[in-house]
Structures are given as C-alpha cells and as structure tokens.
Amino acid sequence: MMNTERISLDYRIISDLIDDHARVLDLGCGSGELMYLLAQNKNAKVQGIELDEEAIYRCVEKGLSVFHGDIESGLTEYPDDSFDYVILNQSMQQIRKVEFVIHEALRVGSKVIVGFPNFAYLGARMMFFFRGRSPVTPSLPYLWYDTPNVRFLSINDFKAFCETRNLHILADFYLGDDKTLRFWPNLLASNAIFLLQANQSSRS
C-alpha cells in the first residue's frame, strides 16, 4: 500500500469515499496518480479517460488502463451502470457541456465524485479586489491567457446547480491548505469535493 502521509488531501478524501474493489472511471485522469492510488490502496478496478497523449504514456507506465478521448464525448461508449464511481476531480472547470457530462457520469456510474477549485475563495477575491487582476492562486495557478479553465464557479454555485438539477449531495468536503473546514466554506475553502447521486426519480 502507498504511504498516505505523502498523498494530497483531495486524493485522501476521494480514496476514503471509494469502496474496496469498486469499479472506478476517472475522467481527465492526467498521469494517473489518483487511479494508481485507488488500485493500490482499494484494489479498485480503475479506468481513465484522458486527452493528453504524454499523460496517457505516464498512465501506461504505471500499468493503468486509459482511453484516449475527450471527456465530453467519451462517456457515450459506456453502457448504463458500468461503474460504481465516476470521478471528475479538477477537470469539471475545463468542461463546456457541464450538465451533459454530469448526466452521462450518473448514467454510467452509481455515484459521481466532483472536485473543483473554489473561485470565491478569499485569496482569489483579495487578489482581484486589491490588484484588479485575474486571480492566480495554488488552486487556480494559470494566467488568464493560458488557462485550460472555461468555468469559474464557487461552492455556492455548485450547490445551487445540484439543487436545480435534482442531484443528491451524499457528502461534501471543503479544503483549506492542509485540512478540511466547515466554517464559511464558500469564503475560506480553496477547493471542494462533492459525492453525488441522482435522485431515484431522475434515474427512472
């Protein structure tokens, strides 16, 4: 098993949410660190979808199964209920068809784990207010002209989205620099993780 002390906070939270031997699909899996963690620590049957070819090579070097494709179109190849969990960690803000992807993720997976940077984080607000420039923070590290992000959402934005789309939030976690927090998360949390499930009326 991997040494959990060296694993990032968001990966530890996601790993704790995943059941042993679960079937997991990681959308925008990058070079596969999270998938490798789940395979090693949870004996999960992991698969990824990734567009960047160099990242795919690094996944293959780890012995991971990755499909070369776009998140917004790759899910159509999978039948209903193919996975126990579908993960969208630090990739949803790069998706144009957010509602479609989440709907498809809940079609192919029983539960969906979503993690994203909180654009309403205090550090981002202060940078915008005092400097009058687009924020650059550890969770939003790109300059405005080279960012892959097309969505800049807050925790409150995503909660409202879930409410209006009849999505059930099974668990929510708000991340500071090195620990989770519950007090004023929309202001103080730099990242958030949600565990989602479609209400039964939505799946029928």
CATH class: Alpha Beta
Number of domains: 1
* Oligomer kind: single chain
Largest sheet: 7 strands, mixed
- The CATH superfamily appears as Vaccinia Virus protein VP39
What does this entry look like structurally?
The protein is α/β, with parallel strands linked by helices and 204 residues long. The chain has a single domain, classed as Rossmann fold. The chain is built from nine helices and seven strands. It has helices spanning 9-17, 33-42, 53-61, 71-74, 98-108, 122-131, 155-164, 185-188, 200-203; strands spanning 23-27, 45-50, 66-68, 83-89, 109-117, 167-175, 191-198. The chain has a seven-stranded mixed sheet with strand order 3-2-1-4-5-7-6, with helices on both faces. Helix 3 (53-61) links the parallel strand 2 (45-50) and strand 3. The protein is globular. The relative contact order is 0.14. Mean pLDDT is 88; it is low at 1-5.
